[in-house]
């Protein structure tokens, strides 16, 4: 009987822990893709997350290869797809860019991260 109690307790812990871990909004995919080299400069950076986002507390910043912040536009959560965060970009030239994101899921968990993409020089 004691063994059964331990098994039930351990199972409950595992199930509860999995629910907590999945409540965070992690990067699912991005356009431009993480680490990619694109031929044409994007007109916006789009990042899809694993959870719905809280618009007031979610942001993207874009930096050039010298570390200078690019543009002053604010990222917005897509009104029809609350897991998508969009940042319109100014005209980008060839080079490597760093995307820095920080988001809050609707259940108030905050996550952040960054990735690079490169715009290829025209031939």
Q: What's the architecture in CATH terms?
A: Sandwich
What is the number of strand segments? Answer: 8
Overall geometry comes to elongated
Largest sheet: 4 strands, antiparallel
CATH class: Mainly Beta
**Uncertain runs:** 9-21
Helical content class: 10-25%
What Rg, in angstroms, do the CA atoms define?
19 Å
Averaged pLDDT: 88
Strand content: 35-45%
**Order of strands across the widest beta sheet?**
1-3-6-5
The H-and-E topology, N to C, reads as HEEEEEEEE
* Main structural class: alpha+beta
Quick summary:
The protein is α+β, with helices and mostly antiparallel strands. Helices cover 16% and strands 37% of the residues.
How would you describe what is shown here?
- With 123 residues, the protein is an alpha+beta fold.
- It has one domain: Sandwich (Immunoglobulin-like), CATH 2.60.40.
- The chain has one helix at residues 2-21; strands at residues 27-31, 37-38, 44-49, 59-63, 76-77, 84-88, 95-104, 110-119.
- Strands 1-3-6-5 form a four-stranded antiparallel sheet, with no helix packed on it. The chain has a four-stranded mixed sheet with strand order 2-8-7-4, with no helix packed on it.
- Strand 7 and strand 8 (110-119) form a beta hairpin.
- The radius of gyration is 19 Å and the shape is elongated.
- The termini are far apart.
